[in-house]
Fold:
Amino acid sequence: MASIHLDRVSASFPIYSTRARSIRTRVMAATTGGRIRRDKRHSVVVRALDNVTLNIEHGDRVGLVGKNGAGKSTLLRVMAGVYEPSSGTVERSGRVAPLFSDKLGMDGENTGYENIIMRGLFLGFTREEMQDKIPEIAEFTELGDFLNMPTHTYSTGMLMRLAFAVSTCIEPEILLMDEGIGAGDAAFMKKADQRLENLVESSGVLVLASHSEALLRRMCSKAVFLDRGQVVHQGSLEDVLERYNETIAEN
Structure:
């Protein structure tokens, strides 16, 4: 059974620059509620997640809401194992498909075909699985001969097509998404939306970060409200959206 459990998870990122010791940084720390702070070695760090505890069980469809910089994208990356937490523990049960980065596990110097293998290996698939899936992935992307070219020559839309096709080629148990899909023209978007709906329906767990209430209502039944890296409220989607909108109106 798919599940994700986070126990008192924090994620901090050090700032390596002379500006980190400036007055400006101390002012920023005050205006960000302490998210920019100094650690025990007097290095400046950004606290992106702060003591987050979540239990997401099989069958849950969870939306992440919050302003830009609230920690939604960082939380998704911690859930996926892309970022290691600074403290706390993350337990995942089930194969993860992260749909939040067009470059994750890919090298711009590699061809599209080579990056199909690379991204698949990064996501935990075997080389044999990815070799078997290459024809299907190539057909789905509609990239044709571009798959023989280095991906640094690709447009953003082409990279998104390739990344989406690889991440969704094998049915995941845990689906992690940041916003919707922006992967090409109307015809391709329709095809991608259909595949995504099938994946959402078949996956054990969905976690979706989005500013679109329409998208959240379409895909989620629960939600988590993040602010400055902390969980402010969690529960049913409508309850959390009401709390979030009240907070926005007050500010």
